[in-house]
Amino acid sequence: MRSVLAKVLALSSEHSLFTPGDTVVVAVSGGADSVALLDILLSLSGLHLNIVVAHLNHSLRGDESDGDERFVAELATSRGLPFECERADVRSLSIRDKLSLEDAGRRARYDFFDRTAVRYGARSVALAHHADDQAETVLLRLLRGAGVTGLAAMSPRRDGRYVRPLLTLSRSEIEGYLHTRRISFRVDSSNADTVFTRNRIRHELIPALSRFNPEISRRLAVTADLLAADDEVLEAVADASLKRTAREINAEGVVLDVNMLHAELRGVRYRIYRRAMSLVTGGLWGISSAHVRQVDEIVHSRKPNFRLQLPGRVAVVRAYGTVAFSRGVDGGGWDESLVVDGPGCYPLPGGAELRVEIAPPPEDLEKFPPERACFDLDHAPFPWLVRGFRPGDRIGPLGMAGSKKVKNIFIDGKVARERRRLIPLVFSNDELVWVCGFRTGHAARVSENTVRTVLAEVSSPS
């Protein structure tokens, strides 16, 4: 127990997470990590923290979610602490805002925590992420493809307000602390569901890597911390370079000098572009490394004039010696593959959305409308990749021997050329399993041997 408290106190001191007398909102879900976080912060008596317990009921697991809420309320009462709780319909939020369930839940939580912090005048909101969470995040981003910023993963302090005091503790240390203190907690049944990519990393990939290095989670967390330190340096360099290369930065957008950009190192240029896009739209939603490289290509292009439309309504215009970033209109096409990690609601180019859920198959699959599909989850496992049509794409259609060109499917369906690029193609294990609205793949079909099924539906733009 003393070792755990010493590690948390050392991290707090190194990163100035708390000062004596701070009011701190502690996010408590009822699970082991957040319950331990609350008890640890209360045990750091030298800090004299004024703690507010905050719990958001996501309304996703019925009675189990309500049980979590009651547990946290009783926990706060037993410790004599203020308790703030709200309920959010995360499923409806994901549909309304075209987000996955994970993203919708995250948005609802942070919105609730922000409002609670303002209400109590809290300097910090404490989150219970630990070293194993850090390792999972690093691997998840590595599998998707990420640079230094992405692999730096979670930092002890984010956006000034959010702090993660447990990042140096492992899951086993936290569980050992709770056992020693004889503190009970709730278990979220969904954490064992390997349908979700993060859970598969936790239960399958990390145990496999542990055979090579038993300390793999700690090593990955250390790597993320080192990368975060490097990222701070690179961001400072990028800030200075942005000021040096910018001709204008105002409410209309950002205008950069092409010749000045040519003098910068490639990695610095990439960060300048990302910073410019973030200033224009307030974030980098949908922006991938491929988009950043596209911007660099037009900066170095011999063509003096060029226009590029990127996700998040980012318009990039090259005009002779300048390249300007501004708010534009949605391009309506596919620039990069969409990763579908599991059930949820995912936005698609053109305003449509893909909804995915684990559910029993309908009674009559033959009467399924073309915009819906049902697959054997063991033959179409997550993660899926969803992208637009590319020349040469082929599918082994349900009920047919061999394969067929997707181009010929579009021709048979009299699909206009300009519309073809908007039709999503769903891949699992690098195999095309669904040309949305047209044909499903034979390999992922539901049969009498199917154990688990996944339903997918593409909705039209609203």
UniProtKB/TrEMBL annotation:
<feature type="domain" description="Lysidine-tRNA(Ile) synthetase C-terminal">
    <location>
        <begin position="384"/>
        <end position="455"/>
    </location>
</feature>
<dbReference type="InterPro" id="IPR011063">
    <property type="entry name" value="TilS/TtcA_N"/>
</dbReference>
<feature type="binding site">
    <location>
        <begin position="29"/>
        <end position="34"/>
    </location>
    <ligand>
        <name>ATP</name>
    </ligand>
</feature>
<keyword id="KW-0436">Ligase</keyword>
<comment type="similarity">
    <text>Belongs to the tRNA(Ile)-lysidine synthase family.</text>
</comment>
<comment type="function">
    <text>Ligates lysine onto the cytidine present at position 34 of the AUA codon-specific tRNA(Ile) that contains the anticodon CAU, in an ATP-dependent manner. Cytidine is converted to lysidine, thus changing the amino acid specificity of the tRNA from methionine to isoleucine.</text>
</comment>
<dbReference type="GO" id="GO:0032267">
    <property type="term" value="F:tRNA(Ile)-lysidine synthase activity"/>
</dbReference>
<dbReference type="Pfam" id="PF01171">
    <property type="entry name" value="ATP_bind_3"/>
</dbReference>
<dbReference type="InterPro" id="IPR012796">
    <property type="entry name" value="Lysidine-tRNA-synth_C"/>
</dbReference>
<dbReference type="Pfam" id="PF11734">
    <property type="entry name" value="TilS_C"/>
</dbReference>
<keyword id="KW-0067">ATP-binding</keyword>
<keyword id="KW-0963">Cytoplasm</keyword>
<protein>
    <recommendedName>
        <fullName>tRNA(Ile)-lysidine synthase</fullName>
        <ecNumber>6.3.4.19</ecNumber>
    </recommendedName>
</protein>
<dbReference type="InterPro" id="IPR012094">
    <property type="entry name" value="tRNA_Ile_lys_synt"/>
</dbReference>
<keyword id="KW-0819">tRNA processing</keyword>
<dbReference type="InterPro" id="IPR012795">
    <property type="entry name" value="tRNA_Ile_lys_synt_N"/>
</dbReference>
<keyword id="KW-0547">Nucleotide-binding</keyword>
<dbReference type="InterPro" id="IPR014729">
    <property type="entry name" value="Rossmann-like_a/b/a_fold"/>
</dbReference>
